Protein 1
Amino acid sequence: MSSTPITIVGAGLAGLTLGRSLAQKGIQAVIYERASSSPRYNYGITLHPSTYQPLLRILQLDENTFHEKVAVDAQQGGEGHLSSTHLATHSSYGDSSIRCHRGKLELLLREGQDIQWDHTLKEFDTFPQSRGITASFQNGTRIDSHYLVGCDGAHSMTRQILATTMKLKVLPYVVFNGKRHYSCAEYQERLAPHLKDSVLIQMRKGNVLLGVALDEHTVSNHTVSYTYSRPARDGNDPLHKPDRATIGATDIPQEVFEELEALKGIDEPFADVFNAENVRNDRLLHWLMRSLMPDREEVQKLAGQGFILVGDAVHAMPILGGDGANVAIMDGIKLAEHIAGRGPEDMENFSSSRFETWKKAVTNSERRLDEMHTAPKPCL
């Protein structure tokens, strides 16, 4: 195996898991990330046992210690417990799945890794005869490598440069996400009784889905996120803006608050959380539900040139209904195993071996998103 370190672009869940897994196997890797090293992602993600149990072996932690470090309610001695009976559809999560604080999980994964921050990818040069790759970054850094793994998320610059035919698809859903901070007393009075059995709860009102989730406990306050979502309406839906710019996520139309005011007959804590006047005081974002189906031919061609895409860079899933974090983590673990067992020269076969998993995950995420907004049919 070449002594040249494997180049990883992107210090998200896939890239960090891959780097940590390779290090455990004695294989050098360097991660290049466009962001600064400041902690990111102050929100919860759902991990299934099929994902976090293999991750425990990489991190060399037992399950209790893992919960103490990353569960969204760890400060209160919780384990990030989820209950399927509190969710709109039971097909998404089992009762053994847990909610982790993504920022804390990434900090845990970063430990001991060579991460070069503030490196925004600019372009690639390839040298087929020597199977060489030169990655150029906007800060002037140039990195020579034989193998490069693009783990840089749904808006992957690696993919945009190398695989121009693979484009994100915006699904026809309206989704707004808010974040609110509660004092300890407020949380105990208004939310704790409803979140004691599950740190994520949902209810459906017609085809509108309301979700409330605990993101983090601290000594002084509790952070809660909430989501209002529905299918886009036929015709001119003022809340469905599939072509909006990325910076347009903070542009919130008045019609959002009008729809919240029209909600009637909803129980607590949803009535209080989604009170229009309360929401006006929060940080609110317009989320687009995006997906990306991998292109087998394109992925195989890139792998033959020494490039491989993993995580959201190759199989993006909608935030609601998707298992992007789980598949990304497993991509990192599986790719490290493949490289250790067969060498990086065989990455083309890795892409082929994962393709059906990726395709199924994207298809299932879109189906779950539909189920979450569809009332169950009555039993006959």
Protein 2
Amino acid sequence: MDPLSISASIVALVQLTGMVIEYLHGVKGASEDRQNILSELTSVSSMLFILQDRVDQQEDSWPLTLKLLNGSEGLLAQLRTSLGILLSKLSPVKGLKKGEIKEILNIIERQKALLTLARQNDHIALSTAIKDGVQTLIRKVDDISKDKAYMQMRE
């Protein structure tokens, strides 16, 4: 998977989230449900910006997590579908029913939780790599100490 497609997917999601947020800001006398949706989407938007920053920082190595997020049935595709459904139901003609609001909020909350877990997974991989690097350094320091002790004994 090329970096451009991951980045493009995230940018598209940020734009779609922004469209929904903009629409919700424009609704006068927005109900508590719409305020809840707005709050949830603002949080998702922040997470997408963080994810985009993570993607931009990568050069040649793409963590498996990022590749899985952008799969054809990955989390980014699921989030795009959820936001598209939400945007279509926000039109004044269709309107949102109480049960639909709760269902959409639950779906978006789950997707946000999965984004959080994906970010944590990258942190775990980084921690493991750091641990491995430290263990290698410890072995090398031990070898140097042994070599130094051997050389001192020879003198």
Protein 3
Amino acid sequence: MRGRGSPSQPSSTSGHFPRQIPSDLSCLVLYESLEPNYNKQAIRKGSGESGFWAPPNRKYAYHRNRVPAKLFRWRGGIATELPYRPSSLDGVTRHSVATVFAQYPDTNHLLAVDFDAEEKDVVEDPGGWKVLSFRHQPQPGTGRIYSYVDVFGMEQQMAAPGSPHWMPQLIPSIYNYDSRQSTPRRPSTAGLIGHLPILFALPAFSAQADRLAQVLTGHLRPNTWRPHQHCHG
């Protein structure tokens, strides 16, 4: 995962809420900050009327380490902070990676790619930076539906209105269900699931970088998001 960065400070970070989380499910989650270096690649305005600033699409146009990396163990829905040093992940198999780029306050959209933007040129990836999107996944026999957040979804909005308990703190309101653009409304949504690095990124953007540990350990609980009062990231 990759973390925070600006023209009004665009930034990048790289985070599931299934109905039941096995108690023995465990993974390590690493947050690192990537800062755009606009001296190496000039700011580019995105096409269209979305207001996007196009993040750098060359790996040499980023630098990291201004914000210290943070390592967490996620087990059974609970996050615990661990000491981190470069050797901490020796011998650990990398499951998945994403770089997420925020551009507050220019737009509430989040852009992402499913790799480390400092290891691979985004310009080489088909489609380049992508707006977060969703796949609507029905829950058989219940009439309920999951909103699966990813970089390769078919829908621009969630499958049903998001709960005010976690929206817009966890997911920007711009992604909320819109009856004018989305599929026919379901009675409710079974929740938010998705690509793990994206899901873990969302709580990181809900607060400033120095509050990351407090947010993950205190507000991301099994199948639940506890709203907090920290300033938006």
Protein 4
Amino acid sequence: MDASTTSDPTSKRGSTAPISSPITSPINLFLLAVLLFFAYLRLRPTPPTTLPKGPPPVVFRTFTPPDLKPYNGENGMPVYLSVRGRVFDVTPGKNFYGPGGPYENFAGRDASRGLACGSFDEDMLTKNLEGPLDDLHDLGEAEMQSLKDWEDRFLEKYLVVGKLVAVGEKA
């Protein structure tokens, strides 16, 4: 048999470079490195996801009209208003109930009569904060239904943060 026709890899004729196995070829080593890199990216431990910080907790408390008055959205204070003895945190609706909003007269006050009558005038608010709460006894059925509708809307949208009582009733 002629040496030029043999396929013996150890023959001296032909290429002088050693024959490499298919696994250790440069392209396969590169592809293996890429595969290992992507496997690392997929399987590496990820830091735990953190939730965004929520608003500070609000404690349910009892307010008197003078206690409620500062909660009008000024000086960084939240905006609270009262409807039928329930105090609502309406700060998310500060554009409406805070300074400069169409309902700003109700901020920090009992808004029951004004909401029932559909009036945003100062005349609808209790003048004497130290006196008794407005019992709304002179409102008609339509006005009471309007007030109930407002209260239901507030219950759907805002948190109840307290109750409103007259001065002297606070426990």
